[in-house]
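User: Predict Aromatic ring-hydroxylating dioxygenase subunit alpha's structure from this.
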Amino acid sequence: MRTTANDPVDAVLAVGLKDLWYPICPSEFVAERPVSLRRLGKKFVLWREANGALHALEDHCPHRGAPLSMGIAMGDRIACGYHGVQVRFDGVVMSVPGSPGCKLEGAKATRSYHVTEACGAIFLFNASSDIAEPPPLRLPEELTSPEYSNFLCYTEWKGDYRYVLDNVMDPMHGTFLHKQSHSMAEGDNTASFGIRETDIGFVFEKEGQRDVNFDWTEWADTDLHWMRLAIPYPKTGGPGGSFVIVGSYTPIVDNIAAVFHWRCRKLTGWQKDTWRFLYRNRLEARHWNVLEQDRAVLEVMEPDANQREMLYQHDMGIVRLRRHMRNLAKEQLAKEEAAQESKSAKAA
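Assistant:
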C-alpha cells in the first residue's frame, strides 16, 4: 500500500506506529532456543528461560552485528555465536570472553523490548525509546472475561497490514464476498451506515439492521489497536450468542502482514465445553474458508490500489480510520522532531 511517494507519514505507518502493543506471534513459536522474528521494521530475537520467562532483544550483537538469534540462550542472556559476547535480556553486555574487562562489558549496548503473553499470543511493546515499564496490555472483555471462550486464529498474508484493517472496517463486503457462509447469508444487499464514537475509538454500523449479518465493526485504541465485530449464529452453530471476532494486525516486512483473529463466544459450564468441541470438529474449517475468501482478494490487490478508488457511503469507516491513523503518525513525527531539536540544543 502506498499513499504519496516519499511521504514520511506513510513511511511511519508502513512499519507500525510507535509506543503501542502489537501481537507478534503465537506463544508456541518461542521456546528456550532463540527465535528471530522480523516485525515492525525491525528484527527481534526472542527466547525463554527454563521457568518460562519471556525476553526480547534487537537481533543484533553490539560487537560485530551478528544475529544474536544464532547464539545460545543462557537463562536470562544470550551468548552470541560469533564471538561469545553475552547480552542480558535488558540489553546490558555481561561478558566479552575474548577481551575480559573491555569497555563493552557493563554497557547497555542492545535495544531491549517489553513482551508479555495473553490468549495464546506474544505481544511486544514497540517503544520509541527504552522505558522502565510499558503501559498495561488492555484487551477487550472477550479475551479476558471467564464468561467467554476463545480460539486464536493466526496467519500471514501477502499484503500490507493496512489493507487488512480496511477489510475489517468494511462490513458490507460480508453480504457479497461471504454470502455463501452459513452465518452471513442473511440481511439486505443495500444499507446506510453511521459512525458512533466511543471512549476508546468508534463503531461503524449499519443503520436499521443489527444481529442479522456482519453489521458493524468497532475500532479501539487501548495502547493496543484492535478491532471487533459480531456474526449472528444459526441454531446449528451450537450454544451461545453471536460469534465475536477480535482482530489485531502487525506489519512483518513490506507487503507481508501478521494477521491475528480471536474467535470468541459468550458461554460457561457445559455449554463452553460443547461449543469448543463443536468448533474444533465442525465450525473451524468453515471459518477458515471465510478467511481464505478475504485473503484471496487482498493478496492480489495492487500496492497502489488505494490510490485509484471511488469510495461511497459504505466506505465512511475506512475513510475515518485512515484519517485517524495518519493523524497519529503525524503526532509521532512531531514528537520525534521535537526530541531531535531538544537533543541538538543540549549538544550546542
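The chain has a mean pLDDT of 91.
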